[in-house]
Design a protein that fits this description.
The complex is a heterodimer of chains A (615) and B (349). Helix content of chain A is 38%, strand content 17%. Chain A contains 20 helices and 23 strands. In chain A, helix 11 links the parallel strand 12 and strand 13. The two termini of chain A are 30 Å apart. Chain B has 349 residues and is of the alpha/beta class. Helix content of chain B is 31%, strand content 17%. The longest helix of chain B has 16 residues. Chain B is globular, with a radius of gyration of 23 Å. In chain B, helix 7 links the parallel strand 7 and strand 8. In chain B, helix 1 crosses helix 7. About 7% of the residues of chain B have low confidence. The chains are: A alpha/beta (615), B alpha/beta (349). Chains A and B meet through strand 9, helix 8, helix 10, helix 11 and strand 17 of A and strand 2, helix 3, helix 5, helix 12 and helix 13 of B. Strand 17 of chain A pairs parallel with strand 2 of chain B.
C-alpha cells in the first residue's frame, strides 16, 4: 500500500474553486529514502516558519537507508494547529513507485507538483497538476552528476515558493541555516531553488485557492526535535553518566547529548569531560551500567525504545527493589524490530508502568511537547534520586524525531536535588544508619554511596530479601514490611510526577483524557466539536503515573470520559480502569488510533461525535 | 627469688593503615563447608589486609549463583552489590564510571561468566576497565543443583547419565585475546599462589581476570578423562539426596613452579595442575595462548599468571573525564549556566 491511509479521500467538489485559503494548508512530499529530500523539506518548513506562520513537519519513513518510499508532510496553520492532518492540499510526487497511488488518494481540488515524466495529469480531472521537468532543470545548475540527485529535490522548494507565495529571501535564509557548516552548498542549492522558481513563473500559472502570507506568530520561537530537547534537558539536569545502545527512534537522543556535552560540559581547568557517555554492547549492559552508576552516585540515564525496554526489564525490576535511581528515556514506536520500527506509537505505557517480575511499578513522566521533553528530562533526574527508583520519560517517535515549533525552554528554576544521601560527616553525627528504614514516613530511606569514608557507611545491596538494616532476610514480616514501604514510596510519587493539565469547558458533560503527542490532535478536535457540532468537551492531559488525585476528580465530574491514545489495546484506558474507583469505571470509554501514523483531529472528532449520537 | 612471670601481651597485629585482619572479615559464610569459594574469600581478605587497602574504597560486585553470595563473606565494611545473573560486568562498569577512585572486586562463577554472562564478559575484557574479575570456577551450576556449565569438561557425566558433549570455554584464553591486561588461573586451595596472584591483581591498573578452580563439594559429580570414581562409589547415597550436604575438609595444595601436582576432589575426581615455570615470560600474548593450548592437549590445567600488560590505557583513561568522581561533582560543574541555554536557544530560532 502507499499513502491511502495518509490522505483519505474526502471528495467535496463544491469546494473545488472556492474562496482563497490563506495560511491553512498541508503539503506532502513523496520521495525515495536516501535521495536527500530531507534537506529540501527542512528548508521548506523553515521558510514558512520564517514567514511567521505556525508550521509543523512530520517524516514518515521506512526502516531502510536508501530506496524505499518516504513521505514528509508539512502543515501550515494560522490557528496554530500542529497535529497531523489527513487531507493533503499539495502533493509533491517525486517517487515513481508511489506516485499513482499518492495521486489517487487526494481529495478533489488538491494540487500536484510532479516530475513531468510520470504523466500523472491523465489520472484525474479534479486535481490541479503542475508538471516540472526536474532532470532538464537540474543539469545546468549542477554539473556534478553525483550531486544532482540531491540538488534535484531543491527544485520543488522553488516551485512551491512561487506557487504558494514564499519570498525567496526566506528560502535563502533557511538554506544558510541548513548548510551553515557547508557554505559552498548554499549557493548550489539556492541555484536549484531559483531555477524551480523561475520555471514556475514562466510556465505554470497559479491555480487553486491555497496561499501563504506573512503573519507574526513565530517570532522568538525555536524549531527543535524532541530527542534534542530531551538531550538538552539531560544536560541541564546534570546527567553525569549516559550508557545506551542504538535503536530507532531513540539513538539521536544519546548522539545529540554527546554533541552538546562535548561542547558545554568540559571542565574549563582540565579540559576533561564532566561526564561519561558509553555506547554499550546491548540494552542489557546499557541499563546495567546505569544501575551501577546510579548505585555509586552518578546521575545516570539511558535512552531506548520498546524492544530495548524488553531487554532492560530484569534490571529495572532489581532497580525497583534495590532502590536505585535511574532515568530511562523511552522513545516509543510500534512493536518488534521487524515490524514498523520507524513508525510512532504510544505502545509501552502499560508495560513500563509495571515492567519486570514480581510486584513492580514505576513512575512515568509523559511529555507532549518538545518543551516538556526538556523540562521533564530535568525533573526526571531529581525525581529518580528523590525516590531512589527507576523513572521513565515516555516520549514517542513523532515527538522525538520530528521538528516542532516551540517557545524557548525555561532555565531550571530549582537547584538540583540529590535526594537522601548520607555523607561521612552525617554518619559521624548520627553514629550509623539503616538503609531501608522509613525515617521520614514517605517510604524513602537514606542511602550511602560506595567510597564514603566511614566504617558504618557500607551496606550490601540485593533484591527484595532484606530487612531495614539491609541484612539478608527471608522472614515473612520483613518482606511484607519492605513491600508496604515501597508502596508508600510509590504513592508519594503521585504528587511528585508532573501534574495533569485540566481544562474544564463551560457546559461540558463529557471529557477527554489524553497524553503525549495525542494532545495536539485533541486541542484541534475540541475546537472542531465546539464549532461544528456545538459539543463542549472538557480535557484532562495526563502527564504522569501514578495518577494524581486531579485525574480521578476529573473523571467524577463528567458523565463520560473518552480516553484517546495511539495503541490498539487502550493501554492508558486499562491503567485508568485499574486505578479508578469501581463506581466510576463505567464512565470511561476508549478511542484508539494505531495505524503507524500520528493521530489526527478529524478521526477523534468523528469518533466522539458518533458515540455521542451527534452524527 | 620469686618473680611473677607476666607474659607480655602479644602486640596487636595491624597492617600499614592500622587495621586488624578482623576489619576485613565479612559475614559468616552460608556456602557448603569445604566449598572452594570460602577459601577464595579468605585469600581476598588476606590480600586486602596485607596491602592495606581501605575497605571503604572497595566495591564488591557479583552476579547470581553460589559465587555471587560470597562477597557478603569478605570485607564487611565495603559496599556490595549482588546484581542479576551474568550482568556484573555492566554493574562494575557503571560503578567505576560514577567513582573512578573505587577498587572494584567482582566475583563471578563459571555459569555467570561463560554462559549467561559471556556477552558482558567479552566486552568488559575489551574495555580494560580497572577492576579485579574473579571466576570461582567449579564447572557446575551449584545453586540450581548441578547442571553443566560451559567450563565443564567434555565427557563429564550428570547423575542422571547425561554426558557433556561440548568442549569447555577457556576463560583465560578468551580474556587474553579480548584485551584483559592481567590474566591468570589458580586453584582455590593453593594459598600461596592465589594470594600472590591477588596481591598483584589489586595493584594492577586495568582489567584483571583470574579463573580460580574451586571444587564444589555437593554437585561436582562429573566423571571424565581427568577424573576417577573411587570416592563417589563409597559416598553414593548422600550425594543423591541433595538436601543433605556432607561436611568436607578444604583441599589445599602447595607445589613448585614448573611442576605438576595431582589433586583429588571431594567426589574422588582428580585434577592435574601444572604450574608455569619460574622463567615464563608473562608479557608475551602468543606464548600465553600457546601455554594454554598445550595444557589442554595434555589434559592438564595450567596455573599461574599467563599475561600482563601494564602499558595499555584503561577504559577510564580512554574516556578522558575528570579525575574527581563524577558522582560527587557539584551543581556548578554539571549544570551549565543560563547563558549556555540562551546560546543554544538562539541557535534554534
Amino acid at each position: 500500500m502507499g499513502t491511502a491511509d495518509l490522505a483519505v479521500k474526502e471528495a467535496d467538489s463544491s469546494s473545488f474553486w472556492q474562496e482563497k485559503v490563506v495560511n491553512d494548508l498541508s503539503i506532502q512530499v513523496a520521495t525515495v529514502n536516501g535521495s536527500g529530500s530531507q534537506s529540501a523539506n527542512t528548508v521548506l518548513l523553515r521558510s514558512i516558519f520564517r514567514m511567521g506562520i505556525p508550521v509543523s513537519g512530520k517524516n514518515l519513513f521506512p526502516s531502510n537507508i536508501a530506496g524505499l518510499p518516504t513521505w514528509y508532510t508539512i502543515r501550515a496553520s494560522k490557528h496554530g494547529y500542529i497535529a497531523r492532518r489527513k487531507e493533503i492540499d499539495f502533493l509533491v510526487a517525486m517517487n515513481p513507485e508511489t506516485a499513482q497511488e499518492d495521486v489517487m488518494s487526494l481529495g478533489a481540488g488538491a494540487s500536484v507538483v510532479f516530475d513531468d515524466k510520470l504523466n500523472l495529469q491523465q489520472l484525474r480531472d479534479d486535481l490541479i497538476f503542475y508538471p516540472v521537468p526536474f532532470d532538464k532543470l537540474v543539469a545546468p545548475v549542477c554539473p556534478n552528476a553525483k550531486l544532482r540527485k540531491l540538488v534535484r529535490n531543491m527544485i520543488y522548494d522553488g516551485v512551491l515558493a512561487k506557487l504558494l507565495g514564499i519570498p525567496m529571501e526566506e528560502v535563502h535564509e533557511a538554506l544558510k541555516k541548513q548548510f551553515r557548516k557547508k557554505p559552498n552548498a548554499v549557493d548550489l542549492n539556492l541555484a536549484a531553488v531559483q531555477v524551480g522558481y523561475e520555471y514556475t513563473e514562466k510556465n505554470l500559472p497559479k491555480r487553486g485557492r491555497f496561499f501563504l502570507e506573512r503573519m507574526d506568530a513565530t517570532r522568538g520561537k525555536i524549531i527543535i526535535d524532541g530527542n534534542s530537547a530531551a538531550a538538552l534537558g539531560a544536560m541541564f539536569g546534570g546527567v553525569t553518566v549516559c550508557t545506551w545502545y542504538p535503536i530507532t527512534p531513540s539513538s539521536s537522543l544519546a548522539e545529540t547529548l554527546s554533541n552538546y556535552m562535548r561542547r558545554y560540559r568540559m571542565d574549563p581547568e582540565s579540559g576533561k569531560a564532566t561526564f561519561a557517555i558509553v555506547q554499550a554492547e546491548d540494552e542489557l549492559a546499557a541499563i546495567g551500567m546505569v544501575m551501577g552508576a546510579g548505585w555509586a552516585g552518578a546521575r545516570a540515564m539511558t535512552a531506548t525504545s520498546g524492544p530495548g525496554i524488553s531487554l532492560m526489564s530484569e534490571f529495572v525490576g532489581l532497580g525497583y527493589y534495590a532502590e536505585i535511581p535511574a532515568v530511562i528515556f523511552d522513545v516509543q514506536r510500534t512493536g518488534p524490530s521487524t515490524g514498523l520500527p520507524t513508525r510512532t506509537q504510544q505502545g509501552d505505557i502499560l508495560k513500563n508502568a509495571f515492567l519486570s517480575h514480581g510486584d513492580t511499578k514505576h513512575p512515568l513522566l509523559i511529555p507532549s511537547s518538545v518543551e516538556e521533553c526538556f523540562t521533564m528530562a530535568v525533573e526526571a533526574f531529581d525525581l529518580a534520586e528523590e525516590l531512589q527508583t527507576p523513572v521513565f520519560v515516555m516520549s514517542d517517535l513523532d515527538l522525538g524525531m520530528n521538528n516542532w515549533m516551540s517557545d524557548p525552554f525555561p532555565y531550571p528554576s530549582k537547584p538540583i536535588n540529590r535526594g537522601k544521601v548520607l555523607s561521612a560527616e552525617d554518619l559521624a553525627r548520627l553514629g550509623g544508619f539503616e538503609r531501608y528504614r522509613d525515617v521520614d514516613g514517605d517510604g524513602v530511606g537514606y542511602r550511602t554511596l560506595p567510597g564514603t569514608n566511614h566504617p558504618k557507611a557500607a551496606y550490601f545491596t540485593r533484591g527484595s530479601g532484606h530487612n531495614e538494616q539491609a541484612v539478608y532476610s527471608e522472614r515473612p514480616e520483613d518482606y511484607v514490611n519492605n513491600m508496604d514501604r515501597l508502596n508508600r514510596k510509590f504513592n508519594a510519587a503521585r504528587d511528585r510526577v508532573p501534574a495533569p493539565v485540566v481544562q474544564d469547558n463551560e457546559g461540558a458533560e463529557i471529557g477527554v483524557i489524553a497524553y503525549g503527542t495525542t494532545h495536539w490532535a485533541i486541542v484541534e478536535a475540541l475546537d472542531q466539536m465546539k464549532q461544528e457540532y456545538e459539543l463542549p468537551v472538557s480535557y484532562c492531559r495526563v502527564r504522569g503515573f501514578p495518577f494524581a488525585g486531579q485525574v480521578f476528580d476529573f473523571i467524577r465530574r463528567h458523565r463520560r470520559i473518552y480516553v484517546v491514545e495511539q495503541n490498539r489495546d487502550g493501554q492508558m484506558f486499562e491503567l485508568l480502569r485499574m486505578e479508578t474507583d469501581a463506581e466510576d469505571i463505567p464512565r470511561l470509554r476508549s478511542i484508539r488510533h494505531y495505524a503507524g501514523v500520528p493521530i489526527d483531529a478529524r478521526s477523534v472528532t468523528d469518533e466522539i461525535v458518533s458515540q455521542e449520537g451527534k452524527k | 627469688m620469686s618473680t611473677t612471670a607476666v607474659p607480655p601481651s602479644p602486640p596487636r597485629k595491624v597492617n600499614r593503615i592500622g587495621l586488624e585482619p578482623s576489619d576485613y572479615k565479612g559475614k559468616k559464610s552460608t556456602l557448603c563447608a569445604g566449598c572452594g569459594h570460602n577459601a577464595i574469600s579468605e585469600r581476598i581478605i588476606e590480600a586486602c589486609y596485607t596491602l592495606g587497602i581501605e575497605p571503604y574504597r572497595v566495591a564488591k560486585l557479583s552476579g547470581i549463583g553460589c559465587s555471587a553470595k560470597s562477597p557478603a563473606y569478605f570485607l564487611g565494611s565495603s559496599h556490595g552489590f549482588n546484581a542479576v545473573h551474568g550482568r556484573m560486568p555492566s554493574i562494575a562498569t557503571g560503578t567505576m564510571l560514577a567513582n573512578r577512585n573505587l577498587v572494584s572486586i567482582g566475583v563471578s562463577g563459571d555459569g555467570d561468566t561463560a554462559s549467561i554472562g559471556v556477552g558482558q564478559f567479552v566486552h568488559l575484557m575489551r574495555r580494560n576497565l580497572p577492576m579485579v574479575y574473579i571466576i570461582e570456577d567449579n564447572r557446575v551450576y551449584g545453586l540450581t543443583k548441578g547442571q553443566f556449565s560451559a567450563t565443564a569438561d567434555v565427557g563429564s557425566k550428570l547423575k542422571n547419565g547425561v554426558i557433556n558433549d561440548l568442549p569447555p570455554i577457556d576463560t583465560c584464553a578468551l580474556a587474553i585475546m579480548l584485551g584483559a591486561t592481567y590474566v591468570g588461573r589458580s586453584f582455590s586451595g593453593d594459598k600461596k599462589q592465589l594470594l600472590a596472584l591477588l596481591e598483584g591483581a589489586l595493584g594492577h591498573n586495568g582489567t584483571v581476570m583470574l579463573d580460580v578452580i574451586s571444587p564444589c563439594v555437593t554437585f561436582n559429580d562429573h566423571t571424565g578423562s581427568t577424573k576417577s570414581y573411587s570416592y563417589v562409589r563409597d559416598h553414593d547415597a548422600p550425594l543423591e539426596e541433595v538436601s543433605f550436604v556432607p561436611f568436607f575438609e578444604d583441599i589445599t595444595v602447595d607445589y613448585d613452579p614448573g611442576t605438576t601436582t595431582e589433586i583429588t576432589l571431594h567426589d574422588g575426581s582428580r585434577l592435574l595442575l601444572k604450574k608455569l615455570n619460574s622463567d615464563y615470560d608473562p608479557t608475551n600474548k602468543t606464548e600465553a595462548l600457546r601455554a594454554l593450548t598445550e595444557a589442554h592437549d595434555k589434559g592438564e590445567i595450567v596455573t599461574g599468571l599467563f599475561y600482563v600488560d601494564t602499558k595499555k590505557p584503561n577504559f577510564m583513561e580512554m574516556l578522558n573525564f575528570v579525575d574527581a568522581p563524577l558522582a560527587g561533582l557539584p551543581e556548578s560543574s554539571v549544570r551549565p549556566p543560563k547563558k549556555v541555554l540562551d546560546e543554544v536557544m538562539d541557535g534554534l530560532k
